[in-house]
Design goal:
Layout lengths: L3 E12 L2 E12 L3 E5 L6 H8 L7 E6 L2 E2 L3 H4 L2 E4 L11 H11 L4 H14 L15 H12 L6 E5 L7 H16 L3 E6 L2 H7 L2 E6 L2 E7 L7 E8 L3 H7 L4 E5 L4 E6 L5 H10 L3 E8 L3 H9 L7
Parallel strand pairs: 3-8, 3-9, 6-7, 7-8
Antiparallel strand pairs: 1-2, 1-4, 4-5, 9-10, 11-13, 11-14, 12-13
Helix pairs in contact: 3-4, 6-7
The structure holds adenosine-5'-diphosphate and magnesium ion.
């Protein structure tokens, strides 16, 4: 799992006067589900397109699946769900999948079987022989998702896969991402919707104006814990004394203090210390920051996710 799926250094893209991606330096491990988060216009789509060699970088370098950007053999192992796809509306879902499968060099029974599996998986079997022009946004999105997986990719890029989906559709995407991850497929998800990303991704990067400004591991052991306590009194001695158990001790209300500690094991020590000093303890609990809280903290309140 330590193999690198994507590595970039200083990737940059200018569109005339617009600097869409300023300096993208990123590393995604093979087999991980990676969330690429940022407000609209942050450069997420442009970044994916550079990784896919659909947009030529103005600067910087990168490798995808071990080869330089644009390598043809590697492209055959990549899947892509574009953000604003425009499929031929006269095709049926089955025809569209056959067309894309053939572009990947798939033929005959293996392709038929693959199409059938995917139609079932995205819940499109019933409508599979109707033309796309009669589909809802959600049906198109699910068909697009099947298209992105037709070649059983080693790496799949999903650009805003849940936009336009109802809650059930979003759940489906979430489940599919989890299945892909369980099978060792690397998943790169662009999103400004944080819920699904929080539920499925191992790691996220926050991008702002084309720069990664923060990375965060979601799966596995989190780095520390935020602790909130309601105690009385909250005086200078208490605040200073708490400092020995952790960092960022902050008084947030009359009797409320928050701080960061290395883990849950510190909580009993803090409780004992408070009680021994004669401080009344009303509440003492760890709280994990939600991805949304992280987003707002990292991006600033002017950039709340949409
Ligand atoms: N083909 C293009 N021509 C000119 N400007 C573009 C083009 N594509 C994207 N941009 C600009 O680059 C910036 C980043 O866009 P984009 O990568 O689509 O962001 P995101 O996907 O994060 O919303 C935006 O300011 C956008 O208007
Ligand atoms: Mg985009």
């Amino acid at each position: 799992m330590s193999e690198t799926a994507i590595a970039t250094r200083g990737l940059q893209k200018r569109f005339g006067p617009t600097l869409a991606v300023a300096d993208l330096s990123l590393s995604v491990r093979a087999g991980e589900a990676f969330g690429f988060l940022g407000p609209n216009g942050a450069g997420k789509t442009t970044s994916i397109k550079m990784l896919l060699a659909l947009v030529e970088p103005s600067g910087g370098t990168g490798t995808v699946l071990g080869a330089p950007l644009g390598d043809r053999a590697v492209r055959a192992r990549i899947g892509f769900l574009p953000e604003h796809f425009r499929f031929h509306e006269y095709l049926t879902a089955r025809e569209l999948l056959r067309f894309h499968g053939r572009l990947y060099g798939l033929r005959g029974l293996p392709l038929d079987a693959r199409i059938e599996d995917l139609l079932v998986r995205v819940d499109m079997l019933d409508a599979a022989d109707r033309p796309l022009r009669g589909y809802s946004k959600g049906m198109l999105q699910r068909t697009g998702l099947a298209q992105a997986l037709i070649n059983d990719p080693a790496l799949v890029f999903l650009d805003e896969p849940t936009s336009g989906l109802d809650p059930l559709g979003r759940l489906l995407v979430r489940d599919i991402v989890s299945e892909l991850r369980a099978r060792g497929t690397t998943v790169f998800v662009n999103s400004h919707l944080l819920g699904e990303v929080e539920a499925t991704c191992d790691r996220v990067a926050f991008v702002k104006q084309g720069r990664v400004i923060h990375e965060l591991a979601l799966a596995g052991a989190p780095a520390g814990l935020e602790l909130e306590m309601r105690v009385r009194p909250v005086d200078v001695e208490v605040v200073e004394g708490l400092g020995r158990f952790g960092t960022s001790v902050t008084v947030v209300g009359d009797n409320c203090v928050r701080m960061r500690v290395s883990g849950e094991h510190v909580i009993p020590d803090i409780a004992r210390w408070l009680v021994e000093r004669g401080v009344s303890v009303f509440a003492l609990q760890g709280r994990r920051k939600s991805l949304e809280e992280w987003f707002v903290e990292v991006m600033g309140t002017d950039q709340r996710p949409g």
